[in-house]
Please model this.
Amino acid sequence: MRDNGRVSLYRDDGIVLRTQKLGEADRIVTVLTRRNGRVRAVGKGVRRTKSRFGARLEPFTHVDLLLYTGRSLDVITQAETVRAYGEPLAVDYPRYTSGTAMLETAERFTPIEKEPLIRQFLLLVGGLRALGEGAHDPRLVLDAYLLRTLAVAGYAPALDECAVCGTPDSVSPEGRPPAPLSRGTTPGAPGPRDRWLGGDTPSARPASPADAPQGLLSPMTVRTTGERIAERFVTAIALGQFVPGQRLPTERELAAMLSVSRATVREAIARLAEAGYVTVRRGRSGGTFVTDGWGPDSDEMIRRTLGGEWHEVELLLDFRQVIEQQIARTAAVRRTGTDVKAIQAALADYERAGADRDSSRMADLALHRAIADATHNPHLTSLSLSIRHDISFGFEAEPYSPEVRGRALHQHPVLAQAVIDGNPGQAAALAAEHFSLTESMLRELHARVMLRAGTPPGTPQE
Model:
């Protein structure tokens, strides 16, 4: 008997984007899947009238697929209909054309095969569902889908500046919109502001008058998502979340952490490498390594990251103090013998980590996770991890310096012991002191860059 080797099977669900003929009876089916991104696969014999699942592999259909990996194209072995969005669209021409535009847009914004893009998938499902229900004008549904999918892919319209020179629009002190700056100026109402953790939504950056392009349709200077991610990296490096010599997480890991595409991560890394913050090494022991903690543009990049939403940062820091104190207090009341062992093991791992930044980060996370788990309330644990994610710009690492580690080496044992001894009041007070380390570093960095820019720290930023 001949050994055919191992056959790799996998299952996923997705929306059929388009089909094309292959041979006499087969089709190549392009599907945007939930877990594997855009997949091109062969449906063998689906054009025959007796095909078991040919009718299920039509555009607009949400299908559950069983596939095996081929040498060039995967092969569909089973297909079950989850929901056929095409049925209500086929009888209404405006809805059908809007749906077709959505499918084509989804394919264009997933250029790399088998790159997971869950947000694009969910957005397409929601758009097709809205079209199928018919509760809204299909043109409005399409416009909403296009704006949101552009944002997820890293693009957004500039609605608050002149289309020619990039000068920001504003509202006059009397509350009236200002006179038009030039032909192409947008209305006076301000556009959406950048959020501190803005994900894939970019924002406009005013261009210098000296560099202003000529002509209404000349390119505008726009802050891309990759640029904003690069600014967050620089802020994280300044806080010690990444230290010189440390290897960054992989491209795939960073994309998952930051909820952006790998293309956006690549753009950010390229910007950092060009500015000298990181170096990219190839080969088995390669990767992206931090080379510098501060550069000539660091002040401005950090100011753009922190300044505009500093009030939101302060609210998040205050929220963290409340939640972490409650977690420590509850853990001291509810801890069990198993919890005590987990806390002690994590504490020992942190002490053994030494100067290794990655080991120290993982051990710190494990210790606070063990304390949160001791509450025996998964919602508190999830909330603690969510706040940690947000306060660290999505990088899952607390601000770090040798001084901070030295203080943590003193604070961790006493906090852990208060929880183990069942002293809720002391545990809460120690948690408040410990989590003020991150707050102090953020406030110090924010004050420093604002003062260097000649702006008092309390001044609101546009």
